[in-house]
Amino acid sequence: MAIDAPLLDGYAKSDHQENKYISVVRDFNEESKRLWKLAGPAIFTAICQYSLGALTQTFAGLVGELELAAVSVENSVIAGLAFGVMLGMGSALETLCGQAYGAGQLRMLGIYMQRSWVILLTTACLLVPIYVWSPPILELIGQTTQISTAAGKFALWMLPQLFAYAMNFPIQKFLQSQRKVFVMAWISAVVLLLHAFFSWLLILKLGWGLTGAAITLNTSWWIIVIAQLLYIFITKSDGAWSGFSWLAFSDLWGFVKLSLASAVMLCLEFWYLMVLVVITGRLPNPLVPVDAISICMNIQGWNAMIAIGFNAAISVRVSNELGAGNARLAKYSVIVVSVTSIAIGVICMAVVFATRDYFPYLFTTSEAVAKETTRLSILLGITVLLNSLQPVLSGVAVGAGWQSLVAYINIGCYYIVGLPAGILLGFTFSFGVMGIWSGMAGGILLQTIILIIVTSITNWQKEAEEAESRVRKWGGSIAEDRSEW
């Protein structure tokens, strides 16, 4: 029996399409596995470390409304400012270490980390006056005298945390670039368990209040730093650590410039939602709105840890692949992580909407604060979805070294569009905290759209060539002098 040629062609096309589909699914799964090996532990680590401050805030809320406001404002404004600066400046290390690791130049990583310590510890010293004079600063930006005094007292006790940040972020970028993420995850998990117990003991059981909160939070952050350092010093990190060297003080100005660009980029993002708490403090009778918005920011912060985990993962993937000259893999990683993070964002938004009548009572015993938090949960869910993708795209920027470009985008979207829109809606049109948050969410949406366009039109082969040039430039002084290794 003869078979028509068109029928055979149809079977051939069908087989080809099926094979193509299987190939796409297989490639997606393979890249997903690579990403989750990095993102899973990174998400867990970020959640554990964020939960240190969030748990402290929760226990403070069980003590009283003023204690909750004090810890919330200090966490969001003072420590939030320091966190943004330190994380941002440490992200320069993420670009350099990741691309050097991808290029096989392992010996550079230890020097890079030491240079970053020098810069971040110096920056921490410059930030000390903000902690010391935080009460008048908080009053200047609109907080009440009562909240400013309590938050300022707590900020002064939290100075040790500032220097823990300066040590921790370079260590984390050093380990992440080598994909040693499980170490950080285990350390953070153990510290979180200890932190939860001692927070309950000191804050509630012994009644030490804010003093107990400061003791446990400072101690927890320094345990993380010391444990990670011991791991690096003992294992030598597969050759990436060879001891302290005077080379850490060479090429500092060039390193500072890249660190500042990274800091500006990430600080503009971190401070944006921090400003939301500050502006809310200028509303009439601000105690309840500030507590409500602080609870929402607490939930948003926990969700943001998922995105930050993907931020770290895609930064490592992009920097490693560009450093190794694999432009196609770098581009494909961006596609896979974007699809994954959006899917997770939709799920998290649904969880927020489903639990909006219940989750406020985890943070407060005040009926008024709980009702206001429930009212704000609609905007919280939308922000959760937007912030599922935005940090991922920022991670792409860090991995590729686009910090300066994204800094300009952030200024335009956040502070020229979003912030004025929020103030206009909140105060001029009297929509209150809902209006403030809505306008600022519009800024996040605009920034996300622009980053999607920038990423879509990127010439990844050119980025790989620039990564190779960057590794040669920053590795030059180290290659010339190995006598100290």
UniProtKB/TrEMBL annotation:
MF term (GO), any: xenobiotic transmembrane transporter activity
Keyword Transmembrane helix: yes
Major localization class: membrane
CC annotations in GO: membrane
Keywords: Membrane, Transmembrane, Transmembrane helix
Keyword Nucleotide-binding annotated: no
Membrane topology: Multi-pass membrane protein
Record-linked CDD domains: MATE_eukaryotic
Subcellular location: Membrane
Name of the protein in question: Protein DETOXIFICATION
Provenance organism: Manihot esculenta
Lineage: Eukaryota, Viridiplantae, Streptophyta, Embryophyta, Tracheophyta
